[in-house]
């Protein structure tokens, strides 16, 4: 539990002294006297019960406990600033715009819930959603047409210049319509007996699917159609005997409602991370932070529901 004797002025003064490495300069920056700064630092050290800083001829140096405390003190100030920015954003009348790319694995399953939560957190923000294959969306991110992308991590050559923050893991599934002949005798080697909807080149799951098939001694499917279109896959799979190889998130709703059935294949080898992709050189904004918070809240709610 945080000691209630620690006030914001203690944290602010400590961080400013560490930044300037000078009590005098830090005091000037905060419009305080040097004795007042010294007193505040002494109070903080008495509360935490250890020396955080030592004076030397070169200025003020952090002790080892001081280095540890500085890391979290900076985080606390940054978090408080983000909260203040969020309040300012919420109070604006004009629309703050956010452009988000959503890969198929999250567009149908996760995004509707995220959009609802984001609207609650930032009712004045204007959200634009673009879906498509991994390479297309990451390129839009690089050129600044998108603020962030949410979906599976791609091959290393497609992730150049992009930061990835993992949210959860997801596997590939093989789905068919209810009553499909394969359900009575589910054998991975027999999938080739039917038409297959297969991830195209450039799809994030393509390498994982190919590795899975090789590991199980399965060759290429001669009768296959390559697409990332979730709309087409849902309709065509329900209306035919094709087998659709796709990320579980794309068809999670259909599986839950019984409109599609996942074949009981062990596809752990296709498991891969899903997360938020951003440009490191793109400054963080309050509206982007609120979107990330909306994603976190939705995933936390899903996790609590499952437990």
TrEMBL record:
Residue stretches making up the HTH lysR-type domain: 6-63
Record SUPFAM superfamilies: Periplasmic binding protein-like II, Winged helix' DNA-binding domain
Keywords: DNA-binding, Transcription, Transcription regulation
Domain of life: Bacteria
Entry similarity comment: Belongs to the LysR transcriptional regulatory family.
NCBIfam families: TF_pcaQ
Name listed for the protein in its UniProt record: Pca operon transcription factor PcaQ
Organism of origin: Ruegeria marisflavi
């Amino acid at each position: 539990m945080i000691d209630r004797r620690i006030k914001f002025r203690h944290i602010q003064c400590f961080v400013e002294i560490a930044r300037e490495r000078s009590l005098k300069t830090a005091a000037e920056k905060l419009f305080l006297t040097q004795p007042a700064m010294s007193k505040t630092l002494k109070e903080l050290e008495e509360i935490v019960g250890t020396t955080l800083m030592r004076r030397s001829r070169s200025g003020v140096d952090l002790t080892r406990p001081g280095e540890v405390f500085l890391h979290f003190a900076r985080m606390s100030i940054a978090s408080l600033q983000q909260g203040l920015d969020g309040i300012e954003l919420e109070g604006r009348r004009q629309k703050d715009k956010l452009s988000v790319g959503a890969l198929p694995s999250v567009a149908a399953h996760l995004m509707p819930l995220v959009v609802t939560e984001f609207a609650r957190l930032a009712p004045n923000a204007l959200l634009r959603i673009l879906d498509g294959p991994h390479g297309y969306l990451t390129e839009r991110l690089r050129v600044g047409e998108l603020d962030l992308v949410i979906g599976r991590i791609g091959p290393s050559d497609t992730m150049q210049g992009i930061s990835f923050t993992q949210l959860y893991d997801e596997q590939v599934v093989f789905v068919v319509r209810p009553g499909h002949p394969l359900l009575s005798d589910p054998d991975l080697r027999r999938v080739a007996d039917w038409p297959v909807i297969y991830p195209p080149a450039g799809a994030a799951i393509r390498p994982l699917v190919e590795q899975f098939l090789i590991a199980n001694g399965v060759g290429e499917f001669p009768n296959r159609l390559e697409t990332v279109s979730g709309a087409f896959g849902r309709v065509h799979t329900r209306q035919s005997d094709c087998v659709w190889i796709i990320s579980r998130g794309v068809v999670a709703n259909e599986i839950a409602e019984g409109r599609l059935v996942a074949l009981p294949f062990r596809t752990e080898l296709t498991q891969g991370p899903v997360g938020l992709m951003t440009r490191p050189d793109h400054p963080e904004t309050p509206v982007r932070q609120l979107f990330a918070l909306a994603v976190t809240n939705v995933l936390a709610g899903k996790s609590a529901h499952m437990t």
